[in-house]
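> tool_call: predict_assembly(chains=two)
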Amino acid sequence: MSSALNPKYSFATFVVGAANRLAVTAGHTVAESPGAAYNPLFIYSGSGLGKTHLLMAVGHAAKKAAPQLNIEYLTLDEYVEAFHASVAAGQGDAFRRRFQNVDVLLVDDVQFLTNRKEMQSELLRLTEALQAAGRQIVLTSDRPPPDIADLDERLISRLSGGLVVDMGTPDYETRVAILRRKAEERGARFEPGVLETVAQAEVGNVRELMGALNRLVAFQAVNDTSINAETVKQILGLTGEGAAAAPPGAGRAPAAKGGGGDEFGEFLADVTVTVGKAVEAWRARVGEAVLRWEGEGYRTHRLEALLQRDAPGAVDEAIAAFAEDVERLKVLEAEVSDLDPAAAGQSVFRDPERLGEAEQAAAKVRDGAAPPPGPSAAFPLAAFAVGPSNQVAVSAARAALERPGKKYNPLVLVGKSGLGKTHLLNAIGLELARGKRAVVACLSTQAFIDELIAAIDGNRVDWWRARYRRATALLLDDIQLLTGKERTQEELFNLFNLLQDKDRQLVFTAPAHPNTLSGLEERIVSRLEGGLVAELKEPDREVKRAVLERMLGQQGVHPEPALIDYLADRPTDSVRSLVGLLQRVVGAAAAQDGPLSAGLAREVLEGQAPRDPRRSSGFRTSGLVVSSLGGIKSREKVVWDWIDVADRMIEDFR
Amino acid sequence: MSLVNFTTREITCKIVYYGPGRSGKTTNLHYIYGRVPDSRRGRMVSLATQTDRTLFFDFLPIDLGQISGFSTRFQLYTVPGQVYYNATRRLVLQGADGVVFVGDSQARQLDENLESLQNLQSNLLEHGVDIRTIPLVLQYNKQDLPRELILSPADLDDALNFRGVPSFSADALHGTGVFETLKGISELVLKKLAAGTAA
């Protein structure tokens, strides 16, 4: 029923000039705080001066400021049609309810209320209802309310009760600005002076101006020649009146001595064109730049100061320098808003005069923005032992690495403790971190929770969020720890959505299938289930052999194959316990100063107590696993050697 | 003097008609005066001798009204052509935004033309102005005279226009080429603004 808002019609594309500045300001105000300032806002102007554009711009801006708002744009005719249709269907009340729930109602062309008594009373009722509910109404018309023929007095007073504002025809500078903007949008290039000449024509509205521009674009395209200021006048038929901006009467002034043609008039027209090209051109360029940057919310003192000067000087350089500064500000602001959204709103990012301060502010934010914790280098993918028991998970990980964020997102690795989930998670993180500009957040869920708590405590949750939002991948270990952490779940939920929308890879680990974990919110569980849940099973023989060979190899030990076979055949339910077995055997071998052998292993693991109970008690391994693969030789070895030496010394003493 | 004042939004152009005696500078101004509507022209000041020779200078102010928001005025001056009025010429030349050199097309006047052109150059230099930078056009007047008496515009270009500035052939008495010349110099003067080097 209602028309969609045309995305082209936004404030960004609206050229502001003296004639419409008030209306635009009012529009901005209304969009920022609907229902609070001017209600209703009534905008009127002649045809083709931007009423519809402004109305839709209000809609866009309001939607942008508060996406949850229910915004409805429609022309009066559409409103009338909708009303008639619903009345015909016996749904008049539903119609009323529908419009009473609109937060911002934008009605175009209300001048057509003339001679529609029932619609007038309907609109009156609606206006009253919306106003009472603090909802915003913006209306446009080609004339002020009292001038709409046959309009109900009460409605006139209602409509006039907010703010009634008009938009006039644009002045010369604005016309030039509009033409330049539109020509740029169309990718059309004109010789200098052409658009200025078009702008000099006294047109009644912007639509006519667009018509003129269209003719030039078409002419230039068809003839494949560029138009100059002279030919413009012919194409647009401006020649008859001389340059139209010439003072009235000048062109038609009677020749002082009869006959002789109107040489003075021609001269005047000629001078007018030249002045337009030469003098006004730079002023228009500055004016246009001011309008443009002002429209984008930048302070333009520096450009305005140019207009005060007597001679043009290096205007173009000044404009270019200004534009450069603004671009730099944009870059800084974008960077800062990535790092810390709260800091991005600072006014220094909107004032090219204070570029230096902006640089400093950005540097400050940059310094404060530490990257989120990354993956541990101790878990390279190459060191991960692959076998049938974890083939699925490893393949999924490799697939995810090939197309991060696109294939399996999220990837959830599930499996019991000690099967290598953390290793695989970190390995994925390490691989992802190889990418250029990659920011991989890889940490345990507990650390994630602790960071959030610290951030809440330090009142810098925004900063904390921004840190993770920058991540190109998020990997969380032991997601089950979220149980009962409502706030963290909430934050993770938002972060999850945000990252997933941007195709950034998410990887989680959990001891069991997410839907069997208690204490996780349904929305988190369903999101985890939405990707791929890959299970790591108890290690098979192949995995075990690979683990054993690698660990022994790292120590420079090359044991008899029977030992590997023996250990790999031992029943173990996780890699971690396998590592524990191996360490016991290695420990025993070191204690005896004998070779590693299957016999020794059998002796150690089946019944016979190790020679020195202290050794095994010192080797309860769960704490060692993180640094284990390859770590056996290090700290613990030193302790062993020392004890060994002591034993020997005692023997020698005897 | 400022040619374009953006604060008060005024454009003022001072254009000086220069040339040897009896080449038709005052005639140019008279013709223009006759074509400008009463409301737009000031009083033409002309200090002439009994034989209609310019004694001091002619001055014709023209008000072009509002152009692109600028109130625009042209001030047209002539200088006395005779050699012995050089001080006056130099004075009038002061602050000129553009110069129209009105040359006499008669073959026997060629030397006077050259002399006057040299005089223009040296007088401009007195004011610190290089003749190569100031807007200048040439007008070859009296082209209505019998062919045998005058040089063609091409010949005159060869003889006088060694800087290649715009040149116009004219018959100031009947108005031919007068406004063309004025347009030519106006354009040069106003275009100089765009270059950002307004005097």
